[in-house]
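Write out the bound-state structure for magnesium ion.
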Amino acid sequence: MSLLQVRDLGKNFGGVRALDGVSFDLPEGQLLALLGPNGAGKSTCFNILNGQYRPDAGSVHFDGREISNARRSMKPRDVWRLGVGRTFQVSATFSSMTVIENVQMALVSRKRKLFSLWRPAAGMYRDEAMELLAQVGMAAQAQRPCGVLAYGDVKRVELAIALANRPRLLLMDEPTAGMAPGERNELMALTRELVVARKLAVLFTEHSMDVVFAFADRMIVLARGRIIAQGDGETIRNHPQVQEVYLGS
Ligand code: ADP
Ligand code: MG
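---
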């Protein structure tokens, strides 16, 4: 059974059908890209998966448990506790705190099973925080305030923060937005490593097709809330409807 099972998801906003009959599976150890033009329904899908929105139709199962359907949906905090992590488009770091303090704070949140804004004492979860920072290539910058970091490095810290909760599924909505091409490749290469090392499942959106083709195991293309194609890079590249959506609209 797949870690994530999405079945027939539907979501309307007023007259707009943001999602319509969306179904897919995501097993652990896989990097799945959700593609599609602006307004296709990608963020709506993420927001249902993390418990922010309740779907109008369909269901989401994670690790065999139903996290939402049209009648009820778990709260974002409960979805997070189950092991669904996410990175944020708006920075999730505190710029006046150091890199390691940001990660320590995330670790405090996990151990206490709630989001914490409590500034950790210097020694708290230090080793665990350093280990996470090493994994994202930020150990050498542990004592710098987040506010002075390069943009790509902030994204690495955010990844460490997301990993602090030991997610089994990580949702990344436009993780490389605002990055230079080199930084994009670096972040996705790192994500790829983490997927393999931790058997993580990752669902991400990305505008650059080059990045997607280089790093995703599989991709799903949405247009107007519906899946128009899914498969590997070869399948997507040669799909007539995908070419139409990307070149025609
Ligand atoms: P994408 O992330 O692929 O660009 P979205 O999921 O953000 O697409 O949006 C899909 C459609 O749903 C769009 O037409 C958008 O305007 C609409 N939409 C998304 N969120 C809301 C909302 N909170 N209220 C009203 N309409 C929304
Ligand atoms: Mg979006």
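---
The chain has a mean pLDDT of 91.
Residues 181-198 form the longest helix (18 residues).
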